Amino acid sequence: MPTNPAIAAGFFTAAAAAVFRMRTLDNSGVHLIHAPQTSQVEGEKTLLDIITAECPTLTESANAHFVPSALLPTGDLQTCYNSIKERFGRTRIVEYERELITTEDGGTIGLDWSPPFATMPLDDRPVVILSHGLSGGSHETYVQTTVKQLTSEPYNFRTVVVNYRGCAGVKLTTHVLYNGGFTSDFGFAVNHIQSRLPRSKLISIGYSLGANLITKYVGEQGDACPLKAAISVCNPYDLASSSDAIDKPTLRNKYIYVPAMLQGLMRLYRRHRKMMETGPVKLDSEAIEKITTIRQFDNLITARVFGYRDATDYYEQNSCVHFMPNIRIPFLAITSMDDPVCPEQYIPREIFRTNPYLVLALTRYGGHLGFHESPGNSWLPRPIAEFCSAIFSHTT
């Protein structure tokens, strides 16, 4: 047994890390939930056949597990790491080319293409469309790491991030921002991408609130969906339940999650307040400045701007769980059981067990948009890239 204090500390730290890794490895497997018979994908192979054969990160016993970094062992640490990292400066690991498009009502959406067209001229290669989370954008770490994976060897796909109204430096040109069910803007972006690259196959990925949005869109489209597949990451599924879970008066909600989320939302509101006040609905600026919960924000701003009775009405009409039974394209959802923002008890497991187009990949660890195997190294882009590659190779 080492006697030097520094050596002893190192020894016990290494031993603790080893024990932690052994314990987590035992519970780190990826659990797939799906219908007894999954749908066929433009041929004889079923969706599950394709995932089993071509997505080793999700199915192979040696690879299908996520073990969190010993430095980030809990869902809270996994979740907070991205924000902590960005506080010390945002790192750009991919290069974008921005295109601004204007919706029929005068709204502006920013499309960030990667690689830029000067590097990758227009062709018919597959395109992956990414939809960011709450008040986010193409700069987010979870977006950039996925873009880098998808645009690198052996995949070499084209990617485009949809930055919604007022987000990621996009100027707000109407009185409305965006919300978790504002699928008309996403559909407008998809149609524009399709018209610009008419021979390219399309898959979409949505994160958190963006996952709810693209899932709702895919369900709305049904058999007419122009996408070949969709991927949902850390989806809240039920907006009311997710909002209520975050607004519960726990210490971590009070001092970590609610302040962080409201800070992003209030920053958007304050930045675009003058434009939002040009709309037909008068906003109560005094009450808005006293907001302390997500539901209050949605009651005073989101619901009023978009014409809902209140936050409850907004949540009910836009929760993607109501649209999932109508999905008719291959759909992969990736969710962790220790997600503190979108609690696992609200995952609609029964819909995954009955709709043959859906597969849920459930991990024990990962937090919300975390999945850090080590600081700076995310597990998440690997299963996403494998699934995209598999679907693109089996569709026309």
UniProtKB/TrEMBL annotation:
UniProtKB keywords: Hydrolase, Serine esterase
Domain AB hydrolase-1: 126-348
Source organism, top-level taxon: Eukaryota
Record InterPro entries: AB_hydrolase_1, AB_hydrolase_4_CS, AB_hydrolase_4_sf, AB_hydrolase_fold, ABHD4
Active site per the UniProt annotation: S208, D339, H368
GO terms under biological process: medium-chain fatty acid biosynthetic process; medium-chain fatty acid catabolic process
PROSITE patterns cross-referenced by the UniProt entry: UPF0017
Family affiliation: Belongs to the AB hydrolase superfamily. AB hydrolase 4 family.
Protein name listed in UniProt: AB hydrolase-1 domain-containing protein
Protein source organism: Coemansia interrupta
Lineage: Eukaryota, Fungi, Fungi incertae sedis, Zoopagomycota, Kickxellomycotina
